[in-house]
Amino acid sequence: MSTPHEAEPMEISAVQIPQANSRGRVIVASLIGTTVEFYDFYVYATAAVLVFPALFFPNADAATALLSSFAIFGVAFVARPLGSVVFGHFGDKVGRKGTLVASLLTMGIATFLIGCLPTALVPGWVFWAPALLVVMRFMQGLALGGEWSGAALLATENAPAGKRAIWGTFPQLGAPIGFILANGIFLALSFGLSAEQFQSWGWRIPFLLSAVMVIVGLYVRLKLVETPAFQQVIDQGEVSKLPVGRVFKTSWRPLILGTFVMLATYVLFYLMTTFTLSYGTTPATIEAAKAKAVAAGKPMTADAIASWVPGLGYTRNEFLIMLIIGVVFFGIFTLVSGPLAEKFGRRKTLLWVTGGILVFGLTFVPLFGAGLVGVMALLIIGFTLMGLTFGPMGALLPELFPTNVRYTGSAISYNMSSILGAAVAPFIAVALWQSADGSPVLVGVYLSAMAVLTLIALVIMKETRDLEYTSNVS
């Protein structure tokens, strides 16, 4: 049978399969998982810098402890492609509902248990504490590998005709909401607790609080029924026995295109969050850097002084507030992107937005160098573009694949792009920043280069807005 990328576009039939899942239930069920995903990312990333080096690697020097903490952070990215295969297999073989419940439960248990872990400071736990942290991060990554695509399919496979891109923005809203929740909680803790209290027990609170979102999500997801599109696959007897093998055999081209279509989105997101935070909070002068290190009880070594590069010199709380303001625009324009992608098509909308990302990458230096107004303008423009490019992906990536391999295909593309874009972007950005003696010019060029690769993928792919979505199989 022909696959969506091989077939000529067909208008969606006006006769719709009755919807069994209400709009409100779909919104909450699809939104909650991605909210927990991005909430977890920022909670762990912040803890990895502030407390995990001292709590889980107390016998290492400061630099080694920080690197070890970030290495564990990266374990989740390694696990995500495996999770996309595992959960994609069950999502295309057993169904969307059960797989979404399993992925959220796995993620919730792992996140909660991080907040319960003993640290390496406890006698007898020097080895086991960091080892268990690795296991928890791996389980989080495994669950996240299948979470996004399942949430996207839940939204789009329940969407009315002509509304897939709009409904596809529901899970995408989890990114800005998770960011605001995580950083809002850390800001509240920083104002309400002393440094000693946060180091002792306060860091556990954000991890434990994630259980509330997970419980709500499980309650809603357990009430779902199977999506109409996958129910048709079951009724037609077209369920794939081995979805991962089938998707590579019949849909290898969409796998590649989907990976690169998502690339600029991932790079932009992690540059706008992790890199800007690092650059914005790095002291602007070597004297300020030395004073900051002494105040933290860790004077700079000769090597650290020699390798130091200047930043903008904001405090962490100051820059987090600025980021949260920028992320509000991320959320607003994620919602705006749905109607745009529905009216003009996914491909045309993303061609224009990706072109904007390319130009934006070349403005890093003049905006970052224009004081507070310039930095806020950079954050607002960057996060606006982020919303416009991230929003349509909830519909576009699933639309690239036939129904019986859609969970697996969209999950693999999404998570392979996360490795090429998200996993390496912070390290590349820091290396480019240091090589340019503290100027972000090469970081912007890097973003523009990734935008070019995404533009090439968009030029090659066909429009997916009007492709038949419910009964097509590979």
| Number of helices, counting only DSSP H or I runs of 4 residues or more | 24
Give the SSE order as H and E letters: HHHHHHHHHHHHHHHHHHHHHHHH
| Total beta strand runs | 0
Which spans of ≥5 residues are poorly predicted at pLDDT below 50?
Answer: 1-18
Count of the domains: 1
Query: Looking at this structure, what is the CATH superfamily?
Result: MFS general substrate transporter like domains
N-to-C CA distance: 6 Å
* CATH class category label: Mainly Alpha
Overall mean pLDDT stands at 87
Radius of gyration (CA) equals 22 Å
Pfam family, one: Sugar_tr
Domain Major facilitator superfamily (MFS) profile: 26-465
Subcellular location: Cell membrane
InterPro entries: MFS_dom, MFS_sugar_transport-like, MFS_trans_sf, Sugar_transporter_CS
Report on the structure:
This protein has 474 residues and is mainly alpha-helical. The chain has a single domain, classed as MFS general substrate transporter like domains (Growth Hormone, Chain: A), CATH 1.20.1250.20. The protein has 24 helices and no strands. The chain has helices at residues 23-50, 52-56, 62-93, 96-114, 128-156, 164-167, 169-172, 174-192, 195-202, 204-222, 228-235, 243-250, 252-261, 263-281, 286-295, 302-307, 316-344, 346-361, 364-368, 371-390, 393-399, 406-423, 425-435, 441-460. Helix 14 runs antiparallel to helix 20, helix 18 (346-361) runs antiparallel to helix 24 and helix 23 crosses helix 24 (441-460). It is globular.
Summarize the structure.
One of its GO terms (molecular function) is symporter activity. The protein contains 24 helices and no strands.
